[in-house]
Amino acid sequence: MSGFPLLTLLTVLPLIGAIIALGAGKRARGVALVTTIASLALALVVWTQLSVDGSMALVELHPWVPSLGIEYHLGVDGLGALMLVLSALVTLMSVDAAHRVHHQPGLYFALVLLLESGLFGSFTALNFFHWFLFWELSLIPAFFLIKLWGGARRGPAATQFFVYTMAGSVALLIAFLAVYVATNSMDFPHLTLLASTGELEQMVTAHLGPVTLWLAIGVLAGFAVKVPLAPFHTWLPAAYAEAPSPVTMLLTGAMSKMGVYGLLRIALPLFGHQIAQIRTPLLVLAVITVVMGAWAAAAQKDLKRVFAYSSVNHLGYCLLGIFALAVPVAASDTGALTSQAAALNGVILQMFNHGVTAAALFWFVAMLQERTGGHRGIGDFGGLRKPAPVLAGLMGIALFSSLGLPGLNGFVGEFLIFRGVFSLSWIAATVSLLGLLVTATVILTIIQKVLWGPTPQHCTNFPDLHAGERMALAPVIGLMFLVGLLPQLIVDSVNPTVVYLLAHWRF
Amino acid sequence: MLAWTIYLSFAGALLQALLPKGRNILSRWIALAVAVVGLAITVAGFVAGMGQGREVLVDLPWVPSMGVHYLLAADGISRVLVLLTSLAAVAGVLFSWNIELRTNEFFAFYLALIGGVYGVFLSFDLFLLFVFYEIAIVPKYFIIAIWGSTRREYAAMKLALFSFVGSAMVLIGLLAAYATAGSHSTGLVELAHANLPVSFQMWCFPLVFTGFAILAGMWPFHTWAPTGHVAAPTAASMLLAGVVMKLGAYGCLRVGIALFPHGLDPWGFSFVGIGSWRDVFALLAVIGIIYGALVALAQTDFKFVIGYSSVSHMGFVLLGLMTLNQIGVSGAVLQMFSHGILAGLLFAIVGRIVYERTHTRQLAELEQMHLFKRLPFAAVAFVIAGMASMGLPGFSGFVAEMQVLIGAWKVNPWWTAAAGVGIVIGVAYTWRALQKAFFSDLLPSAHVLEQENVQHFAAITWPEVTGVVMLVSVSLFIGVYPKILLDTIEPAVKALLTGGAQ
Q1: pLDDT of residue B450
Q2: Which ipTM did the prediction report?
Q3: Distance (Å) of CA B368 to CA A3, B435, B439
Q4: Which tens digits make up the pLDDT trace of B95-134?
Q5: Are A426 and A320 in contact (CB under 8 A)?
Q6: A293-328 burial, b if ≥16 CB within 10 A, otherwise e?
Q7: Nearest CB to A181: which of B410, B427, B431?
Q8: Which of A379, B179, B306, B451 has the most C-beta neighbours closer than 10 Å?
Q9: How far apart are the CA of B409 and the nearest CA of chain A, in angstroms?
């Protein structure tokens, strides 16, 4: 309750940076770098302040609009803090990657920092009003970053992105307001408590009739668009492809996590029981997302679209894990409880790992584009390992991380998810394995065609990474190894929260 | 103290009328001074009224034989709405700074309109309220007919006719109520306590409510609004959409619902799910929300987009009123305030900042002008106004719509769902207009190039910047800290709904 308002400071810091960057003109990138480095440092400080039992730490609670149940309520647990670190990291990577913004750099970096603030706000909010404010706030900069700095078909892509997400958000808003009508509360911890005893459903039924399932679907719709879950993913390839690559890093690395986070912070705690009721159709959609994402990636020629669909595939594993663990388990069934915990640990790890890896991959795309004046087709490159060994080597590591090679970060999350899902729903797990196989093919094809193979004439003088780029990339690649080899660095902090959350959810 | 807003505005109007011709600069400054002093008074009245109930400002016998009093009073709802009026008045003067044609006459009508509006919001005597209501109609006609644009005479006449038909319906209802009550007072509080027979309320309520709702832009009586808003000069559009439509909604609440609460009772039978006047008007409100938004989505004229968006947003006000619960009606009042600010801002950007420079309102032509680069101030202002208008959290509109939706959930989930559809369409039309007008990548055609060569856009002037900054700040402030208005609105709404104005 008391103490220094660290989380408020973390959210406000990028806002201040954004205002300074707006007026800084050509120095805006420097301002953004300083701000994002400071934010990352602060996020790491938050990471060290977690409570031992996995409950909320660094809580700030003040009245705001009492008559509407609105409070200024902030806090972090292992899940939230990991997302803060991830957001800070990805934003830093994105700013680092964006060193060729000539057109209105002040506005560009101000919008990036505004987006970072939106991410921080939504990962720390514990009251619906506050959370929704930042959830929507992050949309605006994302829209303009696509619209003003994007590729040739940026207009329709930006609009589609915005309208889809808003439609999902309105469904979410309306469903949540019904919860408010029934409970007079917008406070996540309080509502989680009500839901865990079954009171929430009784209150909703008493006030509004048997609509709880529909409310669950409304809330799910908002997150399904954001993550995305098939068939709500159609906005994604266009948006990811048309956005400038540093912005795509933000979209996939951090913003897509807002959707998964929302499922874990709002949908499962409040509507776990309802989600368990419709678990089978949801699992089917998750499996479709996994398999379809992989197949669609295989069909693409444009590297950005390949990685866009492969992001759909990778986040599909998160959805798979989330929906698979939404099943009532007896307290005595330790095997199933362990599986749930494994799946949830896996989901959270996968969120982090996909964020880092996907951001890195789009960063490499940005570098390839920079060196060739905008080319990004698979067929535009070949045998880069000869002229540019360092680039090829590091990009190969990132690609293998995305593939899920043991020893790299991508493996641990997926392994834990499958470890959990196999015993909770073996059919879903088995079919999803198909996604793993196809993804492996896709990535190996890219490695084969772009990095290995014969070097065509126009690639013989392909410039390698210069020192600055190596310096910037080295920590990211190092992180991939670090998490891959020592996953307990993250799991040790996340696991108490996983246990805490599972103990407070009711399916 | 608040009563002075009325006298001051009418005195200002008189002074403007007496001003010799050609003193345009003086005329502007007088208008601004009157509006700013009005704002100061309403802010002081608002602050002084925090935590207070209804407060009588003036009470003098006027027509003793009929029990008519010159009774001015203010409760929380009035205080909020006069505050809105004064904000809109200041902004309107700022955005009329460039009017050169018969400037003093323009401001004379303008201030008279403002005075009438203040009067309506502060009258607690039915007869007096009706007098101010009529006073407000006349200046509107002249402002549109003389200083307007697109089909201004048609629009002015249409607006006046709709207004008079509405007033006539209200008048019949009020006379009937006065006669039926048999009381010797036309005070709103007394009439609310008169226990009018239920069967009488059943027919009188829809008459009075519809009469007022015409001015609030209720579908299908909304058609005056888009044509009127578009034809009016910028300041008048701002006042029409921002304040005058609120007169209608205010009448619906203060007179319709407060005097005839049983008019909303169930009929005892239902036809396709409609079993009371409440269902009828809620349905019309929801149709207005969706219809207004859909029509706005199809417009080719920038100003018509905003005109129809007002119909959609006022649908939220009427829907909020029909929830008849405290949170929904509070949301309706907050939405009146919020829409007043935002509609003013949108009309100012479209009608003044953009149109006065581009001389076109056709989205197809604006698309070729790359206004984001050439008028970045207007683009940024419209992005913010658009975000606020589509109901993004952090702005006043969100809190208001949220309350209306909560109120509607308590009554009928289908209303909520339909309103939700309206919000999504609202996002679509706002974003469509925004992209076309400011962020298009289209290359200019020869026709537009030719125009552009001759004209360089004039720089943005200080009244424009001041007006935009003021309205945006208010919407942001209320969006982040709605408590400041809600603490005043909620007790007044509660008192009104639980019988009588006290």
Answers
A1: 63
A2: 0.85
A3: 55, 11, 10
A4: 888 888 888 888 999 999 999 999 999 999 888 999 998 8
A5: no
A6: bbbbbbebebbbbbbbbbbbbbbbbbbbbbbbbbbe
A7: B410
A8: B306
A9: 6
What single-letter amino acid sits at B307? G
- CA–CA separation, A451 vs A393, rounded Å? 8
User: From the CB of residue A441, how many other CB atoms can be counted at a distance below 10 Å?
Assistant: 15
**Tell me, what's the pLDDT at B452?**
59
The two three-digit tokens of residue A416, written as one number: 């834990």
Q: What residues contact B384, with CB distance under 8 A and at least 6 apart?
A: B472
Contact A211 B427 (CB under 8 A): no
Kind of pairing between the strands at B55-63 and A70-76: unpaired
- pLDDT, position A343: 94
Q: What is the pLDDT of residues B242-276, one digit of tens each?
A: 888 899 999 999 988 988 888 888 888 888 878 88
Q: Is B424 on the interface with A (CB under 8 A)?
A: yes
CA A220 to chain centre: 16
Distance from C-alpha of B331 to C-alpha of B402, rounded to nearest angstrom: 7
Angle between helices A199-208 and A212-226 (to 10 degrees): 110
Measured distance between the N- and C-terminal CA atoms of chain A, rounded to whole angstroms = 30
Residue that is written with structure tokens 């992005």 in the block? B383
- Measured in angstroms, the CA of B93 and the nearest CA of chain A are apart by 31
Cross-chain CB nearest to B441 (options A65, A68, A155): A155
The 3-class secondary structure across B199-238, one letter per residue, is: HHHHHHHHHHHHHHHHHCCCCCCCCHHHHHHHHCCHHHHH
Encode pLDDT of B23-59 as tens digits: 888 888 988 999 999 999 999 999 998 888 888 888 8
**Mean of the pLDDT values across residues B157-173?**
89
Spatial CA neighbour of A398 closest among A467, A317, A475: A475
Query: Six-digit token pair at B237?
Result: 């559009």
CA atoms of A463 and A304, how far apart (whole Å): 21
By C-alpha distance, the chain A residue nearest B383 is A140
CB contact under 8 A, A67 and B490: yes
Please report the pLDDT score of residue A88 as a whole number: 95
Beta bridge partners of residue A57, listed in sequence order: A76
Backbone angles phi, psi at B45, to 5 degrees: -65, -40
Of B394, B431, B483, the CB nearest to A65: B483
CA distance B154 to B145: 8
Contact B404, B316 (CB under 8 A): yes
Low-confidence ranges of chain A (pLDDT < 70): 1-2
Helix (H, G, I), strand (E, B) or coil at A428: helix
The phi, psi pair for A70, rounded to 5°, reads -95, 125
Position of tokens 């007919």?
B145
Q: The tokens 């009224």 sit on which residue?
A: B49
Cα–Cα dist A106/A120, whole Å: 21
Integer Cα distance of B270 and B287 in angstroms: 19
Tokens of A318: 């998160």
pTM here? 0.90
Q: Which residue of A has its CA nearest to B433?
A: A159
- Residues of chain B with Cβ-Cβ distance to A136 below 8 Å are 392-394
Dihedral Cα A281, A283, A289, A295, nearest 10 deg: -100
Strand pairing report for B55-63 and B68-74: antiparallel
* Token pair in block for residue A389: 């060994």
Torsional sign, CA B23, B28, B30, B31: positive
3-state secondary structure B276-308: EHHHHHHHHHHHHHHHHHHHHHCCCEHHHHHHH
User: Residue B443 pLDDT more than 80?
Assistant: no
**Contact predicate B215/B202, CB 8 Å:** no
pLDDT of B455 reads: 63
pLDDT confidence tier of residue B179, bands split at 50, 70 and 90: confident
- Give the pair of three-digit tokens for residue B402: 């949220």
Beta carbons of B110 and B92 less than 8 angstroms apart: yes
